[in-house]
Design brief:
Blueprint lengths: L4 H8 L6 E6 L4 H12 L3 E7 L1 H10 L8 E4 L3 H13 L5 E4 L4 H9 L12 E7 L7 E4 L9 H17 L6 E6 L9 H14 L7 E7 H5 L1 H6 L12 E3 L3 H13 L4 E7 L5 E2 L7 H23 L1
Parallel strand pairs: 1-2, 1-4, 2-3, 4-11, 6-9, 7-8, 7-9
Antiparallel strand pairs: 5-6, 5-10
Helix pairs in contact: 1-11, 4-5, 6-11
Length: about 300
C-alpha cells in the first residue's frame, strides 16, 4: 500500500459521525488546538473539561474559536479527569482524550473502583506505526503503561492489541512475541512468557489472532531473516503486532522507529470501557488526528461486539 497507514485510518472513518469525546484539562495551546482540529476534521465532538478561564486563555493565546464547543468548568486537572470518567461511565461521551495533564493522573481516575470504566481486562497502550519500507501497519504494545508485566498482564496486552488490529480491519492479525532470541531459554523470562502465550492462544485464552514467539525483532519483521534462520511460521517476517517484554524495550523500540526510521504513529489505550486517546506534546498533527480516527474504529468495534 503506497498511502500512509495513518491516512488509511482517516479514510476508514470518513463517513462516520464524530465521536463525542471528553477532552481532559486542555489548558495549553497544543492540546486545545488538537481537539479543535479534530472537531474541524469531523473526527470528534469535543467536550472541554477543565478550569474555564485557563481554557479560554489558551484559546485566546492560540487564536482558536471554541464557542461551538461545550465547556465544563471544574477546579483542576484531577477533577477534570474524574468528571470525564463519570461522563464516559454514563455514556455521555464515547471516548476520553488526554489534555495537559500527566498520563498517570488521568489513568488513576480511569482505574479507580468508582470510575465505572474498569473491565476484567488490564489496560494497555497500543502504538499504530507507519514505518517507511514496511508494507503494513505495525502495532507495538505495551510501550507506555505496564512497566514490567507478568504473564497474565501480557495475556491482556496481547488481546487488547489484537482487538485494536481487528478494529482496523486487519483480518486474523499476526502477533510476534518479541525477545532477544527466537528460542526458549529458561534464563530469559521473556522467552518463557512468549511460549506460554502461544500455548494460551492454542487453548482459546487469547482469540482473534495467530501468535508466535519468542521471535527476535529481525525475524519478526524480515522474511529474509526468518528464512535464513530456518524459522517456519505464519508470523515470522510478516508480523502485524509486536508484543514487547517490558516498557523499557517497548519505549526504546518505538522511539527508535520514530526518530531513526521516521515512523509516524497513532496511539490509544485499550482495555477500558471507552477508548482513551493519549497524545504527547511532541506528536505532530497527523498523529493526533490518526489517534482520533483510531478511537472511532475501536468504539465501533466495541459496539459491534456488544450487538453480537
Amino acid at each position: 500500500m503506497t498511502a500512509s497507514q495513518l491516512s488509511r485510518l482517516l479514510e476508514m472513518v470518513e463517513a462516520t459521525p464524530p465521536l463525542v469525546t471528553a477532552v481532559v484539562h486542555p489548558v495549553d495551546t497544543l492540546s486545545l488546538a488538537a481537539a479543535v482540529e479534530g472537531a474541524r476534521r469531523g473526527l470528534i465532538e469535543p467536550l472541554l473539561i477543565g478550569p474555564r478561564q485557563r481554557i479560554l486563555d489558551a484559546a485566546q493565546s492560540a487564536d482558536l474559536d471554541i464557542k461551538a464547543y461545550r465547556l465544563i468548568d471544574v477546579e483542576h486537572s484531577h477533577a477534570a479527569a474524574a468528571r470525564a470518567c463519570e461522563m464516559a461511565a454514563n455514556a455521555e461521551v464515547a471516548a476520553i482524550m488526554k489534555g495537559s495533564l500527566h498520563t498517570d493522573e488521568l489513568l488513576e481516575s480511569v482505574v479507580a473502583e468508582t470510575s465505572g470504566l474498569r473491565t476484567d481486562r488490564r489496560m494497555s497502550h497500543v502504538f499504530v506505526l507507519d514505518v517507511p519500507g514496511y508494507p503494513r501497519p505495525l502495532l507495538v504494545s505495551d510501550a507506555a503503561l505496564n512497566i514490567a508485566p507478568d504473564l497474565m498482564t501480557k495475556r491482556d496486552i496481547v488481546q487488547n492489541a489484537i482487538d485494536c488490529a481487528l478494529a482496523m480491519d486487519i483480518k486474523t492479525p499476526r502477533v510476534a512475541i518479541v525477545s532477544a532470541v527466537e528460542t526458549v531459554n529458561p534464563k530469559m523470562v521473556s522467552t518463557l512468557d512468549a511460549a506460554a502465550l502461544c500455548k494460551m492462544a492454542d487453548r482459546g485464552q487469547i482469540v482473534g489472532g495467530v501468535l508466535d514467539g519468542p521471535l527476535a525483532f529481525d525475524n519478526a519483521i524480515s522474511l529474509e531473516s526468518a528464512r535464513t534462520k530456518g524459522i517456519v511460521s505464519e508470523v515470522a517476517g510478516r508480523a502485524d503486532i509486536l508484543i514487547v517484554p517490558d516498557i523499557e524495550s517497548g519505549n526504546m523500540l518505538a522511539k527508535q522507529l520514530f526518530y531513526l526510521s521516521h515512523a509516524q504513529s497513532a496511539g490509544i489505550v485499550m482495555g477500558a470501557r471507552v477508548p482513551i486517546i493519549l497524545t504527547s506534546r511532541s506528536d505532530p498533527e497527523a498523529s493526533r488526528l490518526a489517534s482520533c480516527a483510531l478511537a472511532i474504529l475501536v468504539a465501533q468495534h466495541k459496539r459491534t461486539k456488544v450487538m453480537r
